[in-house]
Amino acid sequence: MLRNIPSSTLKQLVRLSERKEALMAQIQEIDRKMLRVQDRFGIPSRDDQAAPLTVSRTRTGPIRLRSKRGALKEKIIRTLRTAGKKGATVGELSKKLKVPSANLYVWFNGTGRSVNGIKKIGVAKYRIGK
């Protein structure tokens, strides 16, 4: 079922869900502040109008930092240069660069096409040069 969904769509869904979680956390913080102000001045809160407060989970996974623009391109080019004439497969690049292979497939299909010198020499295999 999930095999037919492109990786770019899955990435977009992940980004949107992360954004939604962040916005929900902001709404909950605003609700808490409103309740504090109401309590301070003795304003009765109306339960039917208040948004339900829930405590969101804290992130348990590793925090990922974004790379600088063009960093992946530089890493790929450097690795392909070291590979020489025989080139490198997407799987090999994925292991060496510690980047998901899906990201590399997308990169080669989009950005990689416009980079001078990168040639496709086989199934998921690329090299720099003639």
Question: How many structural domains can be distinguished in the coordinates?
Answer: 2
Radius of gyration (Å):
24 Å
| Basic shape | rod-shaped
Strand order of the largest sheet: 1-3-2
Low-confidence stretches: none
Q: How much β-strand is present in the residues?
A: 5-15%
Based on helices, strands and strand pairing, what is the structural class?
mainly alpha
Distance between the termini: 41 Å
Helix amount: 40-55%
Q: What is the succession of H and E elements?
A: HHEHHHEE
Average pLDDT score:
84
User: How many DSSP E strands?
Assistant: 3
Counting DSSP H or I runs of 4 or more residues, the number of helices is 5
Q: Can you offer a commentary on this structure?
A:
The structure is a single chain. With about 130 residues, this protein is mainly alpha-helical. It has 2 domains: about 1-60; about 70-130, Arc Repressor Mutant, subunit A, CATH 1.10.10.10. It has helices at about 5-40, 70-85, 90-95, 100-110, 110-115; strands at about 90, 120, 125-130. A 3-stranded antiparallel β-sheet has the order 1-3-2. A hairpin with a 2-residue loop joins strand 2 (about 120) and strand 3 (about 125-130). The longest helix is centred in the first third of the chain and has 35 residues, at about 5-40. It is rod-shaped and about 75 Å long. The model has no long low-confidence stretch (mean pLDDT about 85).
Jot down its keywords:
130 residues, mainly alpha, Arc Repressor Mutant, subunit A, three-stranded antiparallel sheet, 5 helices, 3 strands, 53% helix, rod-shaped
